[in-house]
């Protein structure tokens, strides 16, 4: 696939109302592109955490209109609660600044 590393597959879904296209490498989605009524954006998954054979996005960028100058980047941290990875912190960086929020006192319901 042009613009991607060797071994990357590009998948488009027929009939998808959001015009979704995916790039997949090493059995993981590495990019999602959507077109919602003329507003296009791409999500680039930069880093993932292995959660028992499934992957949680740890770091990703959102590019509105594909413009890297307007990109927002998101970094997530997780905490293990009884064998489940739950979100504990999210940092969002935009062209205008950075904000972080934390989730505390995790507990599983019986």
Task: Describe what this molecule looks like in 3D.
With 110 residues, this protein is mostly beta strands. 0% of the residues lie in helices and 61% in strands. The protein has no helices and eight strands. It has strands at residues 9-12, 21-25, 28-36, 39-50, 55-64, 72-81, 84-94, 97-102. An eight-stranded antiparallel beta sheet has the order 1-2-3-4-5-6-7-8, with no helix packed on it. The chain is globular and about 40 Å long. The chain starts with 8 loop residues before the first strand and ends in an 8-residue tail after the last strand. The relative contact order is 0.12. The mean pLDDT is 86.
- Given helix and strand content, the structural type is mainly beta
| Number of DSSP strand runs | 8
Rg, Å, rounded: 16 Å
Overall mean pLDDT score? 86
| Spatial gap, N to C terminus | 47 Å
Strand order of the largest sheet: 1-2-3-4-5-6-7-8
Q: What is the chain-wise order of helices and strands?
A: EEEEEEEE
Largest sheet: 8 strands, antiparallel
What's the tally of helices? 0
**Residue windows where pLDDT falls under 50 for at least 5 positions:** none
> What oligomerization state is this entry in?
single chain
| Percent helix | under 10%
Q: What is the molecular shape?
A: globular
* Residue fraction in strands: over 45%
